[in-house]
């Protein structure tokens, strides 16, 4: 509901307002800026942890986060904010990355927590969560997509650069939804730890994928997908 025609009350258009008034109102509702969305997968973490608080980053994971932070800083962009999953591994990754981006505010959200977004097609034998997970996690992850991935607000004057630190399943689902690909294909994509995925959302609502899971800035011996 961000298409300009959806933001005005067409019923109010009458003989007195005319086409010129409608055009003026539509122009007032049009986005002017481009949004750059950088989706970062958290770094490698301790898989043996039973609870979320125990699933902290490994020493290699901390190295990966440093490399990702350095890469983002080297782009020379004025980042507006870092929004991250409230899970431990994403929070720790964010803390390390943010050291390279001083002054950029950080926001934690439960919407970006890891989960099962939608039953994958084709199915896989090694990962079969309970059906209820798709209903619980899927609704939340879809809400994250609708809340964060959209064209700029009409009031936004300048292009924005935003970082989202979250999880592989969330990022893969968001990419499919943003590109209007069948979301059931999300599990066909693969993302390295600490990777950068760059989406561009134009004022007209069109979306482009500039990079998917980029880790070309990491030495080969630092790259993992766990």
Q: Which fold name corresponds to the CATH topology of the largest domain? A: Rossmann fold
Whole-number tally of structural domains? 2
Helical proportion, percent range: 25-40%
Q: Which structural class matches the secondary elements?
A: alpha/beta
The largest β sheet comes out as: 6 strands, mixed
Q: Please give the number of β-strands.
A: 6
C-alpha Rg (nearest Å): 20 Å
CATH architectural grouping of the largest domain: 3-Layer(aba) Sandwich
User: Strand fraction band?
Assistant: 15-25%
Query: Looking at this structure, what is the CATH superfamily of the largest domain?
Result: Phosphoglycerate mutase-like
The first-level CATH class name of the largest domain: Alpha Beta
Low-pLDDT windows of residues: none
| Coarse shape | globular
Question: How do the strands of the widest beta sheet line up side by side?
Answer: 3-2-4-1-5-6
Report the end-to-end length measured between terminal Cα atoms. Answer: 37 Å
**Mean pLDDT level:** 92
InterPro entries: His_Pase_superF_clade-1 (IPR013078), His_PPase_superfam (IPR029033), Mito_Ser/Thr_phosphatase (IPR051021)
Organism: Leptocoma aspasia
GO cellular component, one term: mitochondrial outer membrane
Catalytic activity: O-phospho-L-threonyl-[protein] + H2O = L-threonyl-[protein] + phosphate; O-phospho-L-seryl-[protein] + H2O = L-seryl-[protein] + phosphate
């Amino acid at each position: 509901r961000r298409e300009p025609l959806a933001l005005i009350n067409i019923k109010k258009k009458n003989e007195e307002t005319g086409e010129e008034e409608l055009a003026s109102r539509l122009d007032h509702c049009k986005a002017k800026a481009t949004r750059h969305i950088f989706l970062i997968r958290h770094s490698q973490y301790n898989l043996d942890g039973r609870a979320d608080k125990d699933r902290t980053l490994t020493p290699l994971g901390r190295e990966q986060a440093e490399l990702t932070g350095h890469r983002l800083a080297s782009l020379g962009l004025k980042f507006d904010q870092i929004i991250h999953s409230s899970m431990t591994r994403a929070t720790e990754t964010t803390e390390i990355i943010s050291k390279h981006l001083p002054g950029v505010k950080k926001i934690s959200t439960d919407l970006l927590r890891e989960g099962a977004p939608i039953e994958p097609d084709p199915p896989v034998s090694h990962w079969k969560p309970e059906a209820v997970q798709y209903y619980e996690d899927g609704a939340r992850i879809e809400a994250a997509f609708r809340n964060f991935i959209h064209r700029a607000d009409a009031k936004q004057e300048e292009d924005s650069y935003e970082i989202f630190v979250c999880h592989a399943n969330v990022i893969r689902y968001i990419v499919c939804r943003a590109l209007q690909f069948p979301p059931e294909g999300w599990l066909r994509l693969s993302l390295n730890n600490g990777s950068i995925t760059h989406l561009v959302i134009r004022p007209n609502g069109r979306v482009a994928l500039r990079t998917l899971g980029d880790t070309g800035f990491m030495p080969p011996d630092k790259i993992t997908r766990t």
